[in-house]
Amino acid sequence: MPVQFDDEKLEQVQHLIEHYPQKKAAIGDVLYLAQKQFGHITPEVEIYIASLLDLPASYVHQVVTFYVMYLQKPVGRHLIMLCDNVSCLLCGAEDLVARIREKLGIGPGETTPDNKFTLWTVECLGACEMAPNLLLDEKFHGNLTPEKLDRILDEAE
Amino acid sequence: MADEKKMVRVTIDGSQYEFAEGTTVLEAAKSVGIAIPHYCYHPGLSIAGACRMCLVEIEKIPKLQIACYMTVADGMAVQTKNERVKKARKAMLEFHLVNHPLDCPVCDQAGECGLQIYYMQHGLYISRVRENKVKKTKKAVPIGPHVMLDQERCILCSRCVRFCNEVPKTSELGFFSRGDREIVDVFPGRQIDNPYSMNVIDICPVGALLSKEFRFKTRVWYLESALSVCPRCSRGCNIFIDFNLRRPWKNDGRRLSRLRPRQNDQVNKWWMCDEGRLSVGFVDDDDRIETPLMRNGGELEETGWKEALEVAAGQLKKCSANQDMEVAVLVSGWAANEELYLLRRLLAECLPGARVAFTVAGNFAPSEDKILRKADKNPNTTGAGLLGLTDSSKEVMTAGDLREMAAAGKIGALVIFYHDPAGYPQTYGQGWAEALGKVGSLIYVGTNSCATSQQAAIVLPAAAFAEREGTVTNFEGMVQLQNRAFGPLGESLPGWEIVQRLGVALGGNFKYSCAEGIFDELAQKVEAFKGLDYRKIGPQGCKVKTY
Amino acid sequence: MARVKLISRFFEIQDSHLLPIYEASGGYASARRVVTENWPADKIISTVKASNLRGLGGAGFPTGMKWSFVPKDHPGPRYLVVNADESEPGTFKDRQILLNAPHLLLEGAIIAALSFGAEDAYIYVRGEYYEPVRIMEAALEDAEHAGYIGRNIFGSGRTLRFHLHRGAGAYICGEETALLSSLEGFKGWPKLKPPFPAVKGLFGKPTIINNVETLSYVPIVIEKGPEYFAGLGIERNGGARLFGVSGHVKRPGVYELPLGTPMKELIYEHCGGLHQDRKLKAVIPGGSSCPVLTPEEAETVNLDFDSLAKIGSMLGSGGLIVMDDRTDLVRVLHRICKFYSYESCGQCTPCREGTGWITRIMTRIVEGHGTSQDLDDLVDIAQMIMGNTICPLGDAAAMPVISFLTKFRAEFEKAVKPSKKSLMSEPVGA
């Protein structure tokens, strides 16, 4: 499949560019758009985006490798971003990591064999009053216990 | 005057100075002989402020400031070597070394390494790193036709990245990832292959970017340097010739180890092109002609200068006297001003009827860009022009016309200086081999054996540019001095001396003992060069009057 | 002291993120006043100056004064940037505002933009805040539809376009110049200063970057008057702010209190004290970058910029992390060090190499192979990072190391072996 945006996406790119006085400032949102379509950002995707925004390919690669949320490798169908920074650590994040290892057989950085879940331990998600917390795909879950975690994982398709 | 910079008074380490407003503390200190250590700063590139080696104390400012970015202000007091600065400097150096691999025994940069040098000057501490160092993927991996990368040695000063962005503007390099996992690299699957790629090797303070060609050839402390000018094109980039005479068993016995650019704000700034850097292998190639050669029977045989010159002179005189045959000389922009001046005298005084031809064609494709490279691949076309020996003068013909004459059997004796038209039809045109075959007596003056020299009756070996002193004039009229790095190979002689001996053999009066003597006379006799001498030319060159 | 309900009243109103509800509670009245009464820029600035409102993202710089730094004669454009990249561990107040009072933020941003002539405002929200982004997108649409932002705001003929920009997972983008680099379409690399953003910022133009909470107080300052706001707090430390408390307390959450409130009161009264009635061991007062406090310090200090600075710490982002007596402080410091080395942008050497080095030493210590020499080295390394970096992340990484090791040295000594004098510690020829 060729790496390309359809007309609708190209229109979206144009719309994004219009928010800034310089084309390249739209790179952040264009990368998110590309990630939604292609799953993760490969060198081919970077070359394509470079051509859309008149940038050197190495420039795009610098941006992609700098930010955590641009995926350079594919992840499972569901990405678990579990915080284990100070407040969540103080409030039981390690129990949740252990529970995931018990239930899904994976540790941080790993994906289940059926490609359903990938687990990342991440930095502070900005919801410390509900520690421990996680993001499952784009949905936030706080005040977690191992039991509540079980329910959330079971409900995920 | 309106654009005269305001001067400000600044104290550095207790002494008062005056500097132009807008000067950075680092440059100001440098101008008065105070060296502030730095890695990421380079005068030819944008300021990064990343290495933090140049931190200095500025009175009334609580935090130490980087000298490469801070500009001088009236009344500023700078301390570059008090205890606080020394402690910080040592700490910054320590940070650079935390993850640096102990590669010195196998690293080419040893001896000219920024970390080694500053460690000896500002470090001298015992390492307290008790951890495993951060490992990076690419160790000793070629990332371009000429550049080797070692990511672990990289101190992430960003000079190479900024260079590729700002000079050739090709942006092949980038810093990927973040924190101490950060690496310098090319885009996956791509190369650093712009025509100036090897400059990153010079500016890299450590052994992260190294020359493939020079790799493991010689330790740099065996090298000596001569100041010279690149002979590859009419830009005349200033260079250092780094040569090795002390360890002749290294590098296949090659004397010339490498070229490095030398700063000249008017000519090449801080850079040189890869082509120039890599085009001087001929100086030590096996096909260097080391003795005069004369054709005996079918073969070229070694002979002595006396005999070769006598025979050559004899053939030139005989042809000169013959009404039906022409004597011709094909002049080259490879010759230095001194040699060309003597040739002009020889032609006027000893071979008055001789036909002179000139061409800028050479052995190299005429690549050109807006950065440094010029299509004219001769270092001294302008010098030849100022001396009346190029086809801009009415009396000089093109090489094409010469070939026609030769093909028609009209050339009785032809002296070719440095050109190899038989070997390079793509630049000189077709038909040279046949045409030369019809020349009565072909005399070749040059450094390396080639198709043209193979057809000659007499071959006179010349010294390469690195083996003789001489001046060349670049396309903008800058006269620059090429110094002699090492002696001519075998019995080869500097070009001017060959012309002198030939002139003497032809009965002329030539009594020069050195190139400088010739230049002094040239400067008196040729209007454009009036007032110049080797001292005035110095290491940075001097413009001729007419430019 | 009693809790105040200036910003936080919106956290208790159902659907306060929706425009009609916001307006029904008096929303957009201040912005409307400032625009329709044609307040000159100077009046806006002097009003906010008089309120003593200070930057609530961490640096605490007086807000009105910051706005006055934009050169008046610059041809423009000028930009307002809203820093919603809240990523400081222990901080979660801006999220509350984005979820529950997005229009309050917009209203404050409108007034701020008018104080220095910005016609474009960028809201930089951290990438992980999916829900706040959705809510803000809707709020922007509604506000534009109502004519409060975009063209002809409040019928005045003036323009103020808002642009939402998502981050992508980099704490450093909360630092204002790194945020600008990111917004301009590159890595979050902090810039060398000077020039300062107010003079030369986003895309090279005069730019003011303000935190979400700071801007959210602006309409309140206009509505209730600067004297009221200043009067809530103490001298030079205006008004109130949102304090976020997390960790080992009974009632973690956001508490809006006047500046100057004793920390003891916040922890024991409003948050109900330590969970399971345990004893206090340590408190991080304003996000993980701030030097940690001992129980004695925590129970005697007041929550304001100056009081915390006086004892060598910071009010920062107002995010308190409370730790009980079972907490392993060595592991807490280790986790904090891991955070900074992971988030270091890598641009300058002391932070890039130093944070990684510190973390690896801490890892060795938690794995049981540390010595007391390591503890001395950690403090020394941290001190050599402080003040020598391009941006404050280096300082933020160093301060926890120095404060934990200074104030809780005994606990760290228990975690390591005493160091033998190594043969390697003297030069061979000494």
Summarize the structure.
The complex is a heterotrimer of chains A (157), B (547) and C (430). By secondary structure, chain A is α+β, with helices and mostly antiparallel strands.
Structure explained in plain terms:
By secondary structure, chain A is of the alpha+beta class. Chain A folds into two domains: 60 residues, Arc Repressor Mutant, subunit A (Orthogonal Bundle); 78 residues, Glutaredoxin. Chain A is built from seven helices and four strands; from the N terminus they run H-H-H-H-E-H-H-E-E-E-H. A four-stranded mixed beta sheet of chain A has the order 2-1-3-4, covered by helices on one side. The radius of gyration of chain A is 18 Å and the shape is elongated. The two termini of chain A are 26 Å apart. Chain B contains 16 helices and 24 strands. Chain B folds into three domains: 91 residues, Ubiquitin-like (UB roll) (Roll), CATH 3.10.20.740; 156 residues, Alpha-Beta Plaits (2-Layer Sandwich); 206 residues, 3-Layer(aba) Sandwich (Rossmann fold). Chain B is elongated and about 90 Å long. In chain C, 60% of the residues are buried. Chain C is an alpha/beta fold and 430 residues long. Chain C has three domains: 218 residues, Rossmann fold; 83 residues, Ubiquitin-like (UB roll) (Roll); 87 residues, NADH-ubiquinone oxidoreductase 51kDa subunit, iron-sulphur binding domain (de novo design (two linked rop proteins)), CATH 1.20.1440. At the A-C interface, helix 2, helix 4 and helix 5 of A face strand 3, strand 5, strand 10 and helix 14 of C.
